[in-house]
Amino acid sequence: MSEFSYRRSIPVEEGYDLVVAGGGPAGCAAAICAGRLGAKVLLVEGQGCLGGTGTSGLVTEFDPMANGEQMVVGGLMREIIETLYARGYVPELLSPKRWRQEAMKWTPFDAEGLKLLLDELAAEAGVEVRFFTRAIDVDMSADGARVNGVVLSNIEGLRYVRAKAFVDATGDAMLAKLAGFPCYEAGKDTEHIMPPTLCALFSGIDWRALQPGDIGLPHHQEKIEQAIADGFFSQNDRHVPGMMMNTGDVGSMNSAHVFGVDALNCRSLSDGMARGRKLVQEYGAFYKKYFGLENLHLVATAAMLGIRESRRIQGEYVLDYADYCARRQFPDQICIFAKAVDIHVYDCTEEEYQRYYEEFNRLDRYGPGEYYGVPYGVLVPEGAQNLWVAGRCVSTDVKVQGSLRVQPAASMMGQAAGVAAVQAIRKGCTCTQVDTAELVETLRSQGANLPQETLSHTMTRGK
Fold first, then answer.
1. Helix (H, G, I), strand (E, B) or coil at 47
2. Residue 185: phi, psi to the nearest 5?
3. d(CA 26, CA 23)
């Protein structure tokens, strides 16, 4: 590919303490929690609403937030689910016990309710939100360690924004990559790429016809196998998460893997969106024919693919599968979590489905009361001074990313990143110099569930 070089002058904006790129669960938590501490925060989001995967992506179920004995998720994420429930944006047949105690239970919610709540929380925290805006470049210090500013693009053109600190909540570690910090890319540094899914909402489901307490269609592996035998599908995907109650007669469908999509390639993403829309129609027809849902009606497909894997940073600590299996705890852990490792199928073969089924249900799956810790160092790109990363692109191996990539975990990591950034600004220190004992205590004061008895003033590093 040939190259084109050009030079231009663009307006400069100043006065911000923190710029957060990405308004998904991680970015919202970082911005809101930093704003509540008095920081002047700019939050930029490429879509027209906050919430990311849960709103624009229509993944309208929060992954498990408890471990069978207690709620492991705390802080802003707990505030969000409790508020959604109080406002009627969680199906009325569910009780708080579902997310406070029960293990491996997903909790559905209304996406429009989440949009409104996040708008409200951001405004109350004094966060300036710019929709339809993306960070497209970074300006680095001469030594390549400090971000001086970011270049933003929207309908007004380009803007250069200076700030004291930055949080990369893009999901794809875009700021970290542009800044030149080391990253791993799925499909380049790994053998496989987990496929995304285009989620959708359907109306016309009589949930009352199901067994009391059911919030999803009954386990339907037999129906999937029958449809495959009938030659119904264009791809014989045996791993179909399914249809879950949303609100009223609406169901949220997380079905149909869009195989072969590289989330870091725009042409591949574009093709994936088009294929995803066709697959949504196909799976809607499946539910009509094999479940007898004659009144099923497609309400909407998501504005973006539900990406499971793209890029991860090389951080000051790499949380790996050995840590997960050991249920390891850290003095500087900024959240705890208990979701099973969830590496989706890579293709449509029976062998690959069996691999997934056995791996997801194997013996190292967590029991009641168990959890692992997430140390502060996974948020800090190796060599960075004033850039934090939060969400599915933090510093882990592939397997742990399969547990930690979900909305509740992203929110908790985002909260930690935002609080750490404010602490660093006020202390005049870098990411790696943050007093992690002070960070933990601040997070605890904000409702984080951090049970470690021993604290450390320095971060855990290694691997």
1. coil
2. -115, 130
3. 7
Number of domains observed in the structure of the chain: 2
- Is residue 216 predicted with pLDDT exceeding 90? no
Report yes or no: 90 and 355 within 8 Å, Cβ to Cβ.
no
Tokens of 310: 């793209």
- Same domain? For 209 and 270 the reply is yes
Is 454 part of a structural domain of the chain? no
CA dihedral 65, 66, 72, 74 (to 10 degrees): 40
Contact 12, 152 (CB under 8 A): no
Does the pLDDT value for residue 214 go beyond 90?
Answer: no
Give the pLDDT confidence of 347-382 residue by residue, as tens digits: 998 899 998 888 888 868 899 999 999 999 999 999
What's the whole-model pTM score?
A: 0.97
Residue 97 parent element (H or E): helix 97-100
- Chain centroid to Cα 277, Å, comes to 22
Evaluate whether residue 213 is within a structural domain: yes
145-175 per-position pLDDT tens digit:
999 999 999 999 999 999 999 999 999 999 9
Mind listing the pLDDT tens digit for each residue in 27-65? 999 999 999 999 999 999 999 999 999 999 999 999 999
Same structural domain, 226 and 280: yes
Joined tokens for residue 353: 């489905």
| Sequence-distant (≥ 6) Cβ neighbours of residue 64 within 8 angstroms | 99, 103, 104, 105, 106, 338, 339, 408
How far, in Å, are 24, 99, 293, 375, 447 from residue 432 at the CA level?
25, 34, 55, 12, 24
